[in-house]
Amino acid sequence: NNNTMRRPSKPLLIAGIPIAGIALASYHGGSTVLAWSPAPHAATSRRSHKQSSSSSSVVLHSAIEDELDLSSLHLTPQLEMMVTAFSSIPDEKTRHKQLLYMASKLPAVTDDVRISENKVPGCLSTVHVDCTLEPKEGDDSDQETMVVNYFGDSDGLLTKGLLALLIRGLNGATPEEIQNVDPQFIQAAKISQTLTPGRNNGFLNMLAVMKKKALDAAEGGAADDVDADGGAEEQSAIVTSFEEID
Predict the structure, then answer these.
(1) What burial letters (b/e) apply to 92-108, b meaning 16+ CB within 10 Å?
(2) Residue 61 and residue 50: Cα distance in Å, rounded?
């Protein structure tokens, strides 16, 4: 029968990462299911659901608009691609599985990364992250462009998946580009819907520490001495306490 449906021979991809055995797709009306592929522009507006929380924890506030404007979030190209990809996933369970898959693909680090200076405070799981500042590959301009490359690890699988997403999304960006990234992208990606307030706080802390790491690397580790007010403001962005939720 020529009408018999055939399974795709190639694995489905999300932001260039194969989906591990998950039948993921974007719904485009009716019951038709189409495989997602990266697009240069944000997808059409999708209705998001307002969520409430009785917790007094500092968390990402719920979206009350139909769609966040990705251009206003100042995302890196890689991060914007992943946000668009995750927002196209039709259910929370699949998004959760994709984060776990990304965690499994995060490169291993040596023990010298797992030191107190690299530990992210206020996380449910133990997280270590650090970075290097390197010349941008293929940059032929007169003034060499320096970009940040992160590496890290966590003992919690979901937290490790969030770290993997941040590392993949921010690697290769300049320190200035990283400072401009709005943490509300996790809302646009619909990932925050699957996280407890504690893990939302952990995500905020990871991003805040990674921004500070990039700034310190760019300024030779003297960022705190350059602008004491700026350093205090950066520290205030780190959540050190939260209500732990099972």
Answers:
(1) eebbbbbbebbbeebee
(2) 9
- Give yes or no for a contact between 192 and 63, defined as CB atoms under 8 angstroms apart: no
Active-site annotation holder among 106, 123, 170, 214: 123
Q: Which of 227, 229, 210 is nearest to 76 (CA)?
A: 210
In the annotation, is 123 catalytic?
Answer: yes
pLDDT beyond 90 at 214:
yes
Q: Is the full-model pTM beyond 0.70? A: no
Q: What's the start-to-end Cα distance of the chain, in Å?
A: 51
Counting beta carbons within 10 angstroms of the beta carbon of residue 116, is it exposed (0 to 12), middle (13 to 18) or buried (19 or more)? exposed
Inform me whether the pLDDT recorded for 244 exceeds 90: no
- The answer to whether residues 152 and 165 touch, using CB atoms and an 8 Å cutoff, is no
How far is the C-alpha of 123 from the C-alpha of 154, rounded, in Å? 10
- For 122-155, the pLDDT digits (tens) are 998 999 999 999 999 877 766 789 999 999 999 9
